[in-house]
Design brief:
The chain is α/β, with parallel strands linked by helices and 150 residues long. It is 43% helix and 18% strand.
């Protein structure tokens, strides 16, 4: 797995050595807000890695693209928001994509990244899994089956 935001060496290294490229995604400033500009950087980086692979004769389809995310899913807005509260993560810091909402909203938002070619999402785990068991149950039962259809 290789990741990064470089425009020249990073794509070349990924094309040569990586089975998986983990993309840097921007942090949402307000849960639920979606800005098309947030997709531009990952889309551009995917294009650069694919082009670098083609340049050396490697099939770009052999490179899996992934990202990390903080996901708060809930039946109510309050449940979803509670799942991404900083208190659940102690002193851990995270500056990646944050998704917050209903299962349908999460599927829609993650689906936009899937359309770019991202096929794996590493979900940030809280310090205590028991405190967010409901969040992960909804993610597993209501979100993942829908994403598998994309």
């Amino acid at each position: 797995i290789l990741g990064g935001i470089g425009k020249k060496r990073t794509p070349a290294l990924a094309a040569r050595f990586a089975d998986e490229f983990n993309l840097q995604t921007s942090r949402r400033r307000a849960p639920g807000d979606h800005h098309k500009s947030e997709l531009k950087s990952p889309a551009r980086q995917i294009d650069l890695v694919r082009a670098a692979a083609e340049e050396i004769g490697r099939d770009p389809a052999g490179i899996l693209f992934s990202m990390s995310a903080l996901v708060g899913v809930g039946i109510t807005r309050e449940q979803a928001t509670a799942a991404i509260e900083p208190a659940n993560f102690a002193s851990q810091t995270f500056d990646g994509a944050t998704f917050c909402g209903s299962a349908v909203q999460i599927v829609d938002e993650l689906g936009r990244y899937a359309e770019l070619g991202i096929s794996r999402v590493y979900v940030r785990a809280p310090t205590s899994m028991a405190s967010l068991a409901g969040n992960f149950e909804l993610l597993a039962a209501d979100v993942l089956p829908q994403l598998a259809k994309l």
